[in-house]
Amino acid sequence: MTALQDRSNYPITVDSVIFGYAEGALQVALIERERDPFKGMWAIPGGFMEGDETVEETAHRELKEETGLESIYLEQFHVCSSHGRDPRGRTITVAFFALIDSDKYHMVASQDALQAKWWPAYKLPPLAFHQDEIYQKALQALRIAVKTRPIAFELLPKFFTLTQLQILFEQLFGIAIDKRNFRRKVAKMEFIVATDKKQEGEKHRPATLYYYDQKRYKEFYNI
């Protein structure tokens, strides 16, 4: 058997792009770095794999240590091996993403972070370690996931208006959507079901409330 000791060894790091959604806006969890390199810059939470950890275990540990976020389902979407990202030397980065209701999670900065903060997803500051590339790929992965799985409905209340649904998709895809075209498409989705309930607190023509029917979704896509 050929030994591997003679091959080049590169440190493995993880980055976790956590997308949050609250008050009709897509957000991203970032930390302000406490140490060099890039001290004082904002970064995607992450760090080096240690000991016998898997990359998944590293991602969860670093996320908890730097932001206090835990028990989040992380999905791997990219491996970055480009040169020049870390002035200390070349690293291989395994990237994960998640989409959560940020109102349900409280971030607290801890190890290696001066502060942890939600930033508007489309107005991020310059990121350390040239993480802009990873962030753009995370956006792509998020949008593919939203198109292929009903994860977006986890960010809405049980009963929602079509306007709330449209705003959510506009935020997820970073575009303005024509109201009439959007509603025509929704009308074809049998798993978005109208109720006899109306939105409360509206004086003039309160909007109809809808709900997501998981059983109909599976039947609609033959899952």
Which CATH class of the largest domain is shown?
Alpha Beta
CATH architecture of the largest domain: Alpha-Beta Complex
- Describe the main β-sheet briefly: 7 strands, mixed
- The CATH homologous superfamily of the largest domain is called Nucleoside Triphosphate Pyrophosphohydrolase
Q: Helical percent range? A: 25-40%
Straight-line N-to-C gap:
45 Å
Tell how many strands the DSSP assignment holds. 9
**Global structural class:** alpha+beta
The overall pLDDT average reads 94
Textual characterization of the structure:
It is a single chain. The chain folds into two domains: 12-148, Nucleoside Triphosphate Pyrophosphohydrolase (Alpha-Beta Complex); 156-220, Orthogonal Bundle (Arc Repressor Mutant, subunit A), CATH 1.10.10. The protein is 26% helix and 27% strand. The protein has five helices and nine strands; from the N terminus they run ββββαβββαααββα. The strands form two sheets. Strands 1, 2, 3, 4, 5, 6 and 7 form a seven-stranded mixed beta sheet that branches. The protein has a two-stranded antiparallel ribbon with strand order 8-9. The radius of gyration is 20 Å and the shape is elongated. The model has no long low-confidence stretch (mean pLDDT 94).
Provide the fold topology.
Blueprint: E1 12-22, E2 25-33, E3 42-43, E4 46-48, H1 55-67, E5 75-80, E6 92-101, E7 113-120, H2 132-148, H3 162-173, H4 179-187, E8 192-198, E9 208-212, H5 214-220
